[in-house]
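Two entries, shown back to back:
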Amino acid sequence: MLRVSDLTDLNVLMDPLDTKLFPGVSSSVQVHDGFRNEHALTAPAILAEVKRLMSVKNTKNVATVRAFPCLRRMLFIF
């Protein structure tokens, strides 16, 4: 069965990062086009939720952990 993630992986063009989502990163940095496009779709909602949780928890500390290469990063707000 073909999944949306498979279609994303099939798009192998390389493009620069969106400077609005990655301020300060050199325009010479290139990423997988499928990653860039999917990231742009979810980044605003994720950032808004992280900011909301940081406000609720009254913190400025955020850590990401990637225990195994095959797993996505986990976000801890403390």
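entry 2 starts here
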Amino acid sequence: MSAEFRRLVRADRVTEGAVAVARYGVVQVGVTRLRDGRIVAFKNACPHAGSPLSGGRLSGATITCSRHGWDFDLRSGACPMHPDWELKLYDTREVDGWIEVAPREVEIW
């Protein structure tokens, strides 16, 4: 079962060095543009403690959780400090001035 792409946020709201936050269903998603122009989207919650990552520090392709200082690579979702923890990423595309996202795996509650 694969998820479908949904419009999330206008493309002009997604800039390098900042995180735009929107909802995909009931999930808060953070979206940013990397230096190379690539758009990345991620679940706006630290997988360790649930803190909103949008409140953390963004530097290049790394976002740091403000609660415990864990770093996450926005290109892969990896947490080099704690390899067992991984940030949930979304597939992205830009269509007609909008950023659209789809989960890479479907969550079953």
